[in-house]
Write a structure and sequence with these properties.
Layout lengths: L7 H17 L9 H4 L8 E4 H13 L8 E8 L1 E2 L11 E2 L2 H17 L1 H4 L3 E9 L7 H14 L7 E6 L6 H9 L4 E7 L3 H6 L8 H12 L4 E8 L6 H13 L4 E6 L4 H7 L4 H25 L2 E2 L3 H5 L8 E5 L17 E4 L4 E4 L3 E5 L10 E6 L2 H15 L2 E3 H8 L3 H4 L1 H9 L3 E4 L2 E4 L1 H5 L1 H11 L15 H8 L11
Parallel strand pairs: 2-5, 2-12, 3-4, 5-6, 6-7, 7-8, 8-9
Antiparallel strand pairs: 1-15, 9-11, 10-11, 13-14, 14-15, 16-18, 17-18
Helix pairs in contact: 1-19, 4-6, 6-7, 10-12, 14-19
Bound molecules: iron/sulfur cluster.
Length: 490
């Protein structure tokens, strides 16, 4: 791996230049600084054949006499959508009947090719997401589900989730999913307000489709139905936001997941005169005026509420707020996996990881799975430290130096000595009781700071920490430059 920063002073100048780019960025404090993410610094990918990938998995499985001890999650990705929603940072490509059919064939061939791996491992969770996986026709969906059943070991699966677009109300599709073991539906409704949906270019006009989708999912036997909503959409008001939320409650899903909009630069330009501050004011207004009403409404409908602090917190990342239905048992999620970085991705651009040591993603799929090629990166110890930092920056208000030592047997202040010294000189951090806190400014710039760590040694050619919670593997993929952030392809 080439280190573009050979001497300490060179390092510092790259480092400073990088910080200047961020500080001078028009979208100051934007946690998606697109301009920075597109600045290539270094490319460290390696291209590997399908048989090479299989070899890596076999080596991993081979060291375990009882192969079923090796567990992984499976992510199946569908890249196509019927139209592009204006707020979306995940959009890949518009669909066509031909593309869907070809993609289905390629997916199935891929599963078949890797059946000797995924048929042996203990699979804990299967996620089928997009794009818009519900765009597949009923027949296509059934063919894919049959392949899942045939090639993936589903015996130990806890959650088998499918991301469903509410405009697709087919009862038959829900029944197919249920028949083949899916037990959780994520419904990306975002809003129940037709004006907001129109602004966002959602491809349905009436909110009655959302109702039908929920009804059909229930009719097909799904208990775990999660409605996703966004706060901060252009055209949204505190009143319209509350009204949408109430409509979601009335449908009695197992949970409502509320996300803050993460605006892309294009979105800001289009709806907020390019000003992040205007957007932040808009979002804050919606939240300030609605939280107590949200809580009351949720309780009245039998939903548990997240704590107020989480809703307002500017110090921690805006995670999804989950309002869970007390009357419905949601899915069990095993967060405590010791092998959390082993996951098998199918499709393109799906990301896979083998036990904290290798990450890879497929390049455009071939209809002969054996001919597929993959971008691969071997993870160094430092890479894993950065992943740890990414987690800490995301979920916590501070970096716990003792925890770092427990995890990596090294001192964080030694490993990242220069970085911390530099941040200290900028007054971005505070070290107290073996904990490193981001000060007020640092906390607001946590994503910039994270990118700063990522790029400091020239390890990463760019980074797009988008909706980190919602799509952890994707963030890692961007981080390790295994896939391009889709937003920059438009
Ligand atoms: S929000 Fe969903 S449906 Fe809309 S463009 Fe993004 S991935 Fe596609």
């Amino acid at each position: 791996m080439k280190d573009i920063t050979k001497t300490c002073s060179e390092k510092l100048s790259v480092f400073k230049a990088f910080m200047e780019v961020m500080v001078e960025d028009n979208y100051r404090n934007n946690f998606f600084p697109a301009d920075v993410a597109t600045r290539n610094m270094e490319n460290i990918n390696k291209i590997v054949s399908a048989s090479g990938i299989k070899k890596y998995w076999k080596e991993y499985l081979g060291s375990d006499k009882n192969k079923l001890k090796r567990s992984a999650d499976v992510y199946i990705t569908m890249p196509y959508c019927k139209s592009k929603c204006s707020y979306c940072i995940y959009f890949q490509e518009l669909s066509s009947p031909r593309k869907l059919e070809d993609y289905k064939t390629n997916l199935i061939n891929e599963m078949k090719y890797f059946a000797d791996i995924i048929g042996k491992m203990r699979i804990k969770n299967i996620y089928f997401w997009g794009g818009t996986p519900s765009l597949f026709t009923e027949d296509q969906l059934e063919d894919i589900c049959k392949a899942i059943k045939k090639h993936i070991n589903q015996k130990s699966v806890i959650t088998q989730a499918f991301e469903y677009h509410p405009s697709d109300v087919s009862l038959k599709k829900f029944q197919i999913l249920k028949k083949y073991g899916f037990n959780s539906i994520d419904l990306g409704t975002q809003s129940f307000n037709s004006k907001e949906l129109k602004i966002c270019n959602r491809n349905y006009k009436s909110i009655s489709v959302i109702k039908s989708a929920v009804e059909n999912a229930k009719k097909a036997g799904f208990a775990d139905i999660n409605i996703e909503m966004i706060a901060g959409l252009a055209g949204q008001t505190p009143e319209s936001f509350l009204k949408s939320f109430k409509q979601a409650l009335v449908l009695s899903p197992s949970s409502i997941l509320l996300y803050d909009l993460q605006p892309s630069v294009e979105y800001l330009k289009k709806y907020f005169k390019g000003e992040l501050s205007l957007f932040q004011k808009h979002l804050k207004g919606i939240k300030n005026k609605s939280f107590s009403a949200l809580k009351t409404l949720a309780s009245e409908h039998g939903f548990d509420c997240p704590c107020e602090e989480k809703f307002y917190s500017s110090k921690t990342r805006a995670v999804a707020l989950e309002f869970s239905n007390k009357r419905v048992k949601g899915k069990d999620i095993d967060f405590e996996s010791s092998e959390k970085l082993s996951f098998f991705g199918f499709g393109q651009p799906a990301l896979s990881g083998i036990s904290n040591s290798i990450m890879y993603s497929a390049m455009p799929l071939n209809n002969k799975a054996a001919k597929n090629q993959f971008n691969l990166k071997k993870l160094s110890k430092r890479d894993n430290m950065l992943v740890w930092l990414m987690d800490q920056f995301t979920f916590n208000e501070c970096l716990d130096m003792r925890k770092f030592k427990e995890e990596f047997s090294k001192d964080i202040e030694v490993v990242f000595k220069e970085e911390f010294e530099y941040l200290n000189s900028l007054d971005k951090i505070l070290i107290k009781n073996n904990k490193i806190f981001l000060n007020e400014t640092g906390a607001r710039e946590r994503w910039k700071l994270l990118m700063f760590f990522m790029n400091y040694k020239g390890l990463f050619s760019g980074l797009n920490i988008v909706a980190h919670i919602a799509s952890y593997p994707y963030d890692l993929a961007y981080m390790f430059r295994l896939i391009d952030p889709p937003r920059f392809r438009d």
